[in-house]
Specification:
This protein has 535 residues and is mainly β. It contains three helices and 42 strands. The longest helix is centred in the first third of the chain and has 18 residues, at 2-19. It starts with a helix and ends with a strand. The relative contact order is 0.14. This is Galactose oxidase. Residues 1-19 form the signal peptide. Keywords: Signal.
Length: 535
């Protein structure tokens, strides 16, 4: 009898332990959707940075200064670099290319240390990586990149860098001062790295750092608008890492287009200092923030509207799904970003429905079993799944005797719209005037032929364009979604329909480059097709 009592008490302890963990792995109801798939047990490196390319391959890279990875470079290649801190002659890879369609990967060779760097895909589809550590140009360490309407990119901030510059270089001076970054810099903790940057519909840049934001005219170097600090005043930028998205842009032919930014999670003031005390007995991991702030940045008197998430989250990633819903995934419930600074993994993703009624916009979905802590990533794939990888809160690769082992795996999260029960509502793109290999211009008519097996609700059909993101450190750079103006839906034959839409009118709304285009029916998206928008 004593044995059974002990077993019962043990399971009661486990239930109590997990019950007090924010966003712990909970038993979800039958109504909860989404599913997880382990794609690769190990790709040999930590997925610290990820970028999807228009060939359905993902460039993934880690850092080079911790020693050997778990995958070798091919054909006896080695990297000989006197700048390296640990291994100067290194025959292992610190980057891989993941083939989404084949579910295979191959090693790539990096030339410099890309640790905590940034990047963007330029209009021709090439990935330009900038910054990093040591020989990777430390001036742009923890910076943010954004593609501009003319196809160039701006690189903003970085550790102890209160300025910005452009790539490719066009004129001198090479670097321009941005006092806002100095004003948002907290002594000892910074809390303004990897600023959240979005191209506004008027061509200016919305820049959020720490707990406040500006609208910035990068051409003149002037602040156009200063926004109020987010209520509560707690930091949301690295290392008190929250995340942010520019909500879907709609009504693209309006005189003034409503642009709205959503910022979620982060850590209270002082969290980084408490988590990094030198004496382990003094270290404390404060509960992360459980709030989101939403602001309409083009209003004459913009104000933050606050909402409460189902759980607290720091180091979470926010990804725009093809149907305009926001996925909040990864991260922790306590602590901050940084080595060994996070606790209580946030295993349950949450969907945020921007158009839902206030107070009912959050929808928890099925959890993962793998903690994705510091140095985790998540990006949208063309088929509507979300690729999830990374997690390494250690200075090197540690697989045993640590709370959260280094994670080399790749998973795919399939949102509820991919559940089999939705197969009769799911559109399938048959053809389009924007088929692969063809350019589409600004402000042009575009038609898409699609198939729906079940009953079509024509007033619930839309076409969206999504820019693939460069994701690292809980921020998806250059990520944006545009809901194209729907002209009409026409019946062609059984289960086949045409929809005509209009493309964005300028590079202010959608910079030139590759986008994933989807047909969405009753919030169920098709598999996307690649299109190239070009002026």
């Amino acid at each position: 009898m004593h044995r059974y009592t002990s077993i019962l008490l043990f399971f009661l302890f486990l239930q109590l332990f997990f019950a007090v963990q924010p966003c712990h792995r909970v038993v979800t109801s039958a109504a909860a959707g989404g599913r997880w798939q382990l794609l690769q047990k190990s790709i040999g490196i930590v997925a610290m940075h990820m970028q999807l390319l228009n060939n359905d391959r993902v460039v993934i890279y880690d850092r080079t200064d911790y020693g050997k990875s778990n995958i070798s470079l091919p054909h006896g290649k080695c990297r000989n670099n006197s700048w390296e801190l640990v291994i100067k002659y290194d025959c292992t890879a610190h980057s891989v290319e993941y083939d989404v369609l084949a579910n295979k990967f191959r090693p790539l060779m990096v030339q410099t240390d890309v640790w905590c760097s940034s990047g963007a895909v330029v209009p021709d589809g090439s990935l330009v990586q900038t910054g990093g550590f040591s020989d990777g140009e430390p001036r742009r360490w923890y910076a943010t990149n954004h593609i501009l309407p003319d196809g160039k990119q701006i690189i903003i901030g970085g550790r102890r860098q209160f300025n910005y510059e452009f790539y490719p270089k066009t004129s001198s001076p090479d670097v321009y001062s941005l006092p806002f970054l100095l004003q948002t810099n907290d002594l000892d903790s910074e809390n303004n790295l990897y600023p959240f940057v979005f191209l506004n519909s008027d061509g200016n840049l919305f820049i959020f750092a720490n707990n406040r934001a500006i609208l910035f005219d990068y051409k003149t170097g002037k602040v156009v608008k200063t926004y109020p600090a987010i209520p509560g005043g707690d930091p949301r930028s690295y290392p008190s890492t929250g995340s942010a998205v520019l909500l879907p842009l709609k009504n693209l032919d309006a005189a003034t287009i409503e642009a709205e930014v959503l910022v979620c999670g982060g850590a209270p003031k002082g969290s980084f200092e408490m988590a990094t005390k030198r004496k382990s007995a003094e270290r404390k991991f404060l509960k992360a923030l459980d709030t989101c702030g939403r602001i309409k940045i083009n209003e004459p008197n913009p104000q933050w509207v606050m909402e409460t998430m189902p759980c607290s989250r720091v180091m979470g990633d926010m990804t725009l799904l093809p149907n305009g819903v926001v996925l909040i995934i990864n991260g922790a419930g306590d602590g901050t970003a940084g080595w060994e600074n996070g606790r209580s993994p946030a295993l349950n993703p949450v969907l945020y429905w921007p158009g839902g009624a206030a107070g009912s916009r959050f929808e928890p979905v099925n959890p993962s079993t793998i903690p994705r802590m510091y140095h985790s990533t998540a990006i949208l794939l063309r088929d509507g799944r979300v690729l999830v990888g990374g997690s390494n809160p250690h200075s090197g690769y540690e697989f045993t005797r640590v709370l959260f082992p280094t994670e080399l795996s790749l998973e795919a999260f399939s949102p509820p719209y991919l559940d089999s029960k939705n197969k009769y509502l799911r559109p399938k793109i048959v053809s389009s005037t924007a088929s692969k290999g063809k350019y589409i211009g600004f402000g042009q008519k575009l038609w898409v032929r699609f198939k729906v097996i079940g009953t079509l609700k024509a007033d619930m059909v839309s076409v969206t364009m999504v820019a693939p993101a460069f994701n690292t450190h809980s921020f998806s750079m250059n990520h944006r979604l545009l809901a194209l103006r729907n002209e009409n839906v026409t019946y062609v034959r059984t289960s086949i329909y045409d929809i005509q839409v209009t493309t964005p009118s300028s590079g202010y709304l959608a910079p030139s480059g590759y986008y994933m285009l989807y047909v969405v029916h009753q919030y169920i998206p098709s598999i996307g097709i690649w299109v190239k928008l070009y002026s």
